Every structure is written in structure tokens, then in C-alpha cells.
């Protein structure tokens, strides 16, 4: 099996897992939104 066949789904699962973990910690989302808002303010 070629590495590229399983590496992309594995990366997608890792990214989705990281997103779920980040959403479970509201402080992370608040900090991220403040950093994004400071770019425009």
C-alpha cells in the first residue's frame, strides 16, 4: 500500500480531532477569536 493512500485520510482525521478538542475548551476558541479580531482592529 502506498503511503499517500493512507496519509491524507490520517491527516484529515488528525485535523478534525484537533478541531473537536479545541471546541471542547472554550478558552482556546476565545483566544483564537481575539487574535483574529486584533488583525482587523
Throw out a few tags for this protein.
41 residues; mainly alpha; 88% helix
Detailed description of the structure:
The chain contains two helices and no strands. The model has no long low-confidence stretch (mean pLDDT 88). The protein has helices at 3-23, 26-40. The chain is mainly α and 41 residues long. The longest helix is centred in the first third of the chain and has 21 residues, at 3-23.
Secondary structure layout:
Layout (H helix, E strand, L loop, with lengths): L2 H21 L2 H15 L1
Overall structural class, as computed from helix and strand content, comes to mainly alpha
H/E order of the elements? HH
- Rg over CA atoms, rounded to whole Å, is 15 Å
Counted beta strands: 0
In whole angstroms, the N-to-C terminal distance is 49 Å
Low-confidence stretches: none
Instruction: Profile the largest sheet.
Output: none
> β content, as a range?
under 5%
The quaternary structure here is single chain
Amino acid at each position: 500500500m502506498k503511503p499517500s493512500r493512507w496519509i491524507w485520510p490520517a491527516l484529515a482525521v488528525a485535523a478534525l480531532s484537533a478541531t473537536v478538542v479545541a471546541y471542547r475548551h472554550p478558552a482556546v476558541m476565545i483566544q483564537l477569536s481575539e487574535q483574529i479580531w486584533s488583525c482587523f482592529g
